[in-house]
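Task card 7
Instruction: Convert sequence to structure tokens.
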Amino acid sequence: MSKVMVTDHGFPNLDPERRVLEPAGIALEEVKPICKTEDDIIRTCKGAQALLVQWAPVSARVLDALPEVRCIVRYGVGVDNFDLQAAKARGVIAANVPDYCVEEVSNHALALILSLARRIPQDHDQLKRGGWGVGPFRPIPAFSDLTLGVVSLGRIARQVVEKARAFGFKTIAFDPLLPDAAFAQCGAERVDFDTLLAQADVLSLHCPLVPETRHLIRRETLARMKRGAILINTSRGPVVKEADLVEALRSGQLSGAGLDVFEVEPLPTDSPLRSLPNAVLSSHAASVSERAVELLQTKAAQAALDFIQGRRPTSALT
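Output:
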């Protein structure tokens, strides 16, 4: 009997995966406690033909130690915990769920944008401390006077652009990998990165974590943004150098930041971000809705099923 193993997950249960795999005669096994390291996977996942993985690292070392594993599927869009080159070199199929949580993350990003542009977190904080009045938080511009800039114009970012335009934002975008038609299709003006930094009143990050984007937002780039601009990050935490962001929030270089992802997760209890009234924080929750999570589990299992039954998963990356 073929076997699929779940190395790690944060779901209430694995019922959606079982509904896909077990009728096809495929055994599903859940590793407990969850795998957190390469050694955990190597020790516990022998005999599996496919792995379903959320956060655990699948490296060349893991693949060499588990030669029976011929397919790895990421619960999610990003695959920075997979060594794709190693998988390709060994003929291992690596897949993801590319359409996961597009609505959820775009809505979450927009909620952060609207909240910070209206200065709601700052007003909420002062009201809790006995204050009153929006005077300290002005100027408060109309949405139609603001330019939203996005870094990377993938599925989620395109949804953010389209939804923000309904509120009156002018939209610009930077993505060196896409043709002009992609920008025109969603109504965003194509600009280079320097222009994006200089013109955006709100900068929303939607890029993958690769060497070129690690600490893309740091002291140097923050200084090139408009004074009083807003930063939103629902992509990957290390895209932003948090120490520099804290400095920009304290100095007024940025008027606010909305963050769903962080350099270290969970966010350390002593992080200065926790005490800043102009920082809105959520616990890597932008992707979550009951509908989206169930579809994520189902589609990840379907990719493994396709592989085992001799079909190439539609979301295969290698």
